[in-house]
Amino acid sequence: MELTVWRTFVTVCRLGSLSAAAAELNHTQSAVSRQIAGLERQLGVLLMERHARGVRPTPAGEVFRRHALATLNEADRAVRAARDARDGALDRPLAVGATPSLAAGIVPEAIRDLLKQTGSIPWSLLPGLSAQLHNRVIAGDLDIAVVTDAPPGLPHDPRLERRFLGLDDMVVALPVGHPQAGPGPVRMQTLADQTWVEDNDGSAALLRQHAARAGVSARIDLSAADLLGKLALVATGHAIALIPGVLTCALRTDVTTVALVDPPTRGIYTITPPRDPHPCAAPLLDQLATTFTSVREPRTQARLNRTS
User: Fold this and answer.
1) Closest alpha carbon to 91 in 57, 118, 63
2) What is the CB neighbour count within 10 angstroms for residue 281?
3) C-beta of residue 198 within 8 angstroms of C-beta of residue 151
4) Phi, psi (5° rounding) for residue 195?
5) Among 91, 92, 271, 277, which residue's Cβ finds the most Cβ atoms within 10 Å?
6) What is the 8-class DSSP label of residue 183?
7) 241-244 and 219-223: which strand pairing?
8) From residue 183, how far is each of 30, 119, 174, 245 by CA, in Å?
């Protein structure tokens, strides 16, 4: 099968429009339609269906799209590797992904310490939610991703290798000067009348579960598009928020935190593809484990001191 046709199909799925895909690929719309129809004949499966606003993949088309995208990404990497070898540039960039809270703190620290050992190497850092990063590693876009098992959880995927770094205690972010600010820990009941803000379903689920265990409910009256927006609403006094403990060291100066009694936790993991690992992936895994431990241990010891 021609990869050009696969690329056309993936582009149509991404844009949801034959005409938009034709414009991006510099084809005519009829040529794009013929390519999709030819691919469907070759596979013996209907891949696309029309709807009011354009086209979308059928269930079979969605399965094919995921595998086609992974194949195309790997083909692109093969081309880049061959050209780099031709040009004498054998250092392939290290592509790292991380959830927003981890990308704001321990991952950049770990990369900094890695570079002290290896010297300068090309690298990139892509923030995203765990499910998105999981798919990017499978697709070959990332050499390593640092993710969490916060709801809806982290799937056990045989296509990936997973390493557990440790548990991260969630804490409550407050505006500086808030009556509950301080070392804590505080019980959830003392925060039950507060307005909360959340930026993703996973964090909201952790908050609701923790409140339910305490016999209260959390009023999540505000939502934010991302972590930065969530912290901005906290800083300006509109709400308080549940945030990862690893983020504490990277908070803005007008936001503080308080520990919770029996806090909700989330597991921190690295995921990597089992084949064709980047030469720096293994040392980065070790450095991430070291960095996570160094960040978490002081907070864990402080919590133990407060409860002893």
Assistant:
1) 118
2) 18
3) no
4) -85, 130
5) 271
6) S
7) unpaired
8) 66, 39, 12, 13
